[in-house]
Specification:
10 helices, 18% strand, three-stranded mixed β-sheet, alpha/beta, 34% helix, single chain
Length: 345
């Protein structure tokens, strides 16, 4: 992996999908899909892969133009952060879905586990190869976490929440290794349900997450958040599950601080982790100034060394208008430049 500057700028994962690719109004008018939602795509099935490739290139170029140091594929091929991977596994009936409560407490159709969870082949390796071939910057790819997927499923097979999470962990671990082999510099596991359901996360979620990360041959990250700002409007003032990640095998922890105005002193509990610091408010389409973003980063500096900070968005930018998303990328990269100048490096 190429060397990164001080205060590198990065997306968490997703970028704003174009209106010509996906029906953004229908996407925003529902909870994130856990089963497949093919009706959201505007392109005909025979042209969809090409359209997703084109959208990925646009997302990559937007990140490069803005000055981001770490680039993702923007998750252009996904209907949600989790269903792209979760519905590609064996042992899951997606044609006859089950039901589970979303983190907001509302029932949502979810994959129904009817047999052993297995990953028959790599799911996102081709996506990483496409990304790697189209940028010379550090590249990151995201995959949903085993605990979160276990909470987004109806278990009609294992009859034990921990056993289900560990089965997902085996599948994620195999995927993590294949993503690095395909050219990823950083692999991030998304585990928002650890925040939403901290008790079972403490009971067995961290164990499953560490199994998913076992023997990873490159830099790994874990993202934990309060949910998409477009859907979950109220933010708690602090995390219910965060210091526990000090015992996680990951190298980096991705958190949000902008919309929640998080008390950043909690970061002192992660002394050995690089912090992917969310400092872009996704609840407001207005573009922050670079100085506003830099001020949000400074709030963390009493508790995290500058060398351990990555400047990032609070969560995925999937639901933002593209113009807003582009402006916020520039503000984020501008903040990194301000902070580097202040540090003299």
């Amino acid at each position: 992996m190429r060397a990164l500057p001080l205060f590198p700028a990065s997306l968490v994962g997703s970028y704003a999908q174009p209106e010509w690719l996906i029906d953004r109004a229908r996407l925003a008018d529902r909870f994130p899909p856990r089963v497949r939602a093919r009706e959201l795509w505007r392109a005909d099935p025979e042209h969809l892969a090409e359209a997703q490739d084109d959208a990925t290139l646009l997302a990559v170029r937007a990140q490069e133009r803005a000055g981001l140091d770490v680039v993702t594929d923007g998750e252009m091929r996904r209907e949600s952060y989790s269903n792209h991977f979760a519905t590609a596994l064996e042992g899951v009936d997606i044609d006859h879905p089950g039901e589970a409560l979303d983190r907001s407490g509302h029932p949502n159709p979810v994959p129904r586990v009817v047999g052993p969870i297995r990953r028959p082949e790599p799911v996102q390796a081709a996506d990483v190869r496409f990304l790697r071939a189209n940028t010379d910057r550090v590249v990151k790819v995201t995959v949903p976490g085993p605990f979160t997927m276990s909470q987004q499923a109806q278990d009609d097979h294992y009859g034990n929440p921990e056993a289900l999470a560990m089965a997902y962990a085996e599948a994620v671990n195999a995927e993590v290794h294949d993503l690095f082999a395909a050219g990823a510099d950083i692999v991030q596991i998304d585990e928002p349900y650890m925040q939403a359901r901290p008790e079972p996360a403490r009971e067995f979620g961290l164990k499953a997450l560490n199994r998913a990360l076992e023997n990873a041959p490159g830099t790994t990250a874990v993202h934990i958040c309060f949910g998409y700002a477009a859907i979950i409007h109220e933010r708690p003032s602090g995390y219910s599950f965060l210091p526990e990640l000090a015992d996680c095998a990951c190298d980096q922890v991705s958190i949000e601080t902008a919309q929640s105005n998080l008390d950043t002193s909690v970061l002192k509990h992660l002394p050995d982790k690089t912090v992917i610091l969310g400092v872009i408010d996704l609840s407001d389409h207005a573009v922050e100034s670079a100085e506003t973003v830099a001020a949000r980063v400074r709030r963390a500096l009493p508790y995290v060394d500058p060398e351990r900070i990555v400047v990032a968005t609070d969560c995925g930018m999937k639901y933002l208008p593209r113009q807003s998303a582009e402006g916020k990328l520039r503000a984020m990269a501008g903040a990194s430049e301000i902070l580097r100048a202040e540090s003299g490096r």
